[in-house]
Amino acid sequence: MLQDIQKTLWAAADKLRANVDAAEYKHIALGMIFLKFISDSFSARRAELTRRFADENDEYFLHDCDEQLLAEELEDRDYYKEVNVFWVPEGARWEALRANAKQADIGKRIDDALAILELENPSLKGILDKRYARAPLPDGKLGELVDLISTIGFGEDQGKARDILGQVYEYFLGQFASAEGKKGGQFYTPQSIVKTLVAVLDPHQGKVYDPCCGSGGMFVQSEKFIEAHGGQLGDVSIYGQESNPTTWRLAAMNLAIRGIDFNLGREPGDTFTKNQHPDLRADYILANPPFNISDWWHGSLEGDSRWVYGTPPQGNANYAWLQHMLYHLKSDGRAGIVLANGSMSSSQNSEGQIRAAMVDADVVEVMIALPGQLFFNTQIPACLWFLAKTKTTRQGEVLFIDARKLGKMISRVQCELDDEAIARIANLVKAWRGIETESTYQDIPGFCRSVKLAEIAEHGHVLTPGRYVGAEEVEDNDEDFATKMTTLTEKLGEQMAKGAELDLLIRKKLGELGYEF
Predict the structure, then answer these.
(1) pLDDT at residue number 182
(2) Which residues contact 93 (CB under 8 A, 6 or more apart)?
(3) How far apart are the first and last CA of the chain?
(4) What is the per-residue pLDDT across 152-198, written as a single tens digit (0 to 9) for each?
(5) Which CATH architecture fits 187-464?
(6) How remote is the C-alpha of 508 from its chain's centroid?
(7) What's the whole-number mean pLDDT along residues 490-510?
(8) DSSP designation for 265
(9) How many Cβ atoms are within 10 Å of 362's Cβ, its own excluded?
(10) Which residues, 6 or more positions from 184, have their beta carbon under 8 angstroms from its beta carbon?
(11) What is the mean predicted confidence (pLDDT) over 335-359?
């Protein structure tokens, strides 16, 4: 049912955007969905309070309650704050906006509503994108979008409402990422990749950090994972950073709608030159930094304390990201990072030396080669690096996993790792670590192998899994082989016969044209 709602909403919203670029329209649609949710949540809490004030058996019962007293109590903000509901002043409520959806100044009305919300709710300050008055939509389209989003019913159950909104929000993020193509990857990491990172890192409590957090998907999946394993929302503290101002707001809204407390820094900023959390030491780091960025360097980074294993080359930030994350880990912390495949073997400039230093320091724990086509509209092959500041088990070894064959196509151009594949990878890593698992790890030719650091050094510290896991074992099957050979021989005979027929036909035609053989 929810999937049908998502698809219907997306189809209608996409139609309304006319010729507006997806990157621009994304913030218009998602900001409005956010506004609808917090207004609905406020209205639901208000209706609940009205019932409870009149119920003699309820702790909120108001004796001798008249209309004036009821109105005053309903305006008491503490009733809303205690259940994590944002205070929504009358002028910012969705009913008022919908009533004026057809007015020419609806864009300004929405901007004013967002400004009021920020003023009345300090935790929202600076994160609501007020761009509606100048939205590049044809006349009437913004009002139509208001009417469309009015059809989303979040209900009065706050838990279910947040879940519905979270899923609608996530669906829209994915659809916008697909519509934007390569640029979409800057704010959205496909869920199957995020789920794999979370499942392998196995976060349960502590500080979780993403230094290039995009729309906040890593945090959302971490919270979902913790809740699914018996933990509570709030068992982790969320820290993030994002350089793009609009994406920074997107992440803040994505977390706010789920009731997740977060610290994304004072402002958007470059992670390397304007580090928002310089003193942070995290229990877990999950990140999908932009691949192979070449314009990251600044003179102020020379001699930076983060470059423990060597100064990264100015033309590629991959090893700057890896070292930044290691620097921000606690002594027993772990990190999972998505990078382009080239990071596993590149020897350009200082990358080979930095990788060798990291391997020799035993901070590389697991390397996973991913299937192709996991990202939206980009063919760049990627891998997962898992780093450990101090290994508690398997010291002096690295686990290599070649998961390239585990992907399943979900469309003509996109692949994903399904839950079964993710569980297989996560359980394998747990078994290898020997922590909280009853199964015993074993190398599987063609899929996984635990390798000593000395062997990795012999291979020039290259970390490509395919170099170590070997070939997949194939069982001998004489009967199957004979059957296959018979089939192939028959096909070859048919093709040769057709070739001979075509040869005769060509000779005949050429003969008719006067050519002799």
Answers:
(1) 46
(2) 39, 42, 43
(3) 72
(4) 777 666 666 666 766 676 667 667 666 655 444 444 677 888 889 98
(5) 3-Layer(aba) Sandwich (3.40)
(6) 63
(7) 75
(8) -
(9) 16
(10) 22, 176, 177, 178, 376, 377
(11) 93
Strand bridging mode 364-369 / 397-402: parallel
Report pTM.
0.73
| C-beta of residue 202 within 8 angstroms of C-beta of residue 284 | no
Residues contacting 36, CB < 8 A, separation 6+: 94, 149, 150, 152, 154
Q: Confidence class of residue 425 from pLDDT cuts 50, 70 and 90?
A: very high
Helix (H, G, I), strand (E, B) or coil at 409: strand
Please report how many Cα atoms fall inside a 13 Å half-sphere around the Cα of residue 70, on the Cβ side: 15
- Residue-averaged pLDDT of the chain: 84
Per the CB < 8 A criterion, the answer to whether 263 and 238 are in contact is yes
pLDDT tops 70 at residue 484: no
CATH architecture assignment, domain 2-179 = Up-down Bundle (1.20)
- HEC sequence for 49-108: HHHHHCCCCCCCCCCCCCHHHHHHHHCCCHHHHCCCCCCCCHHHCHHHHHHCCCCCCHHH
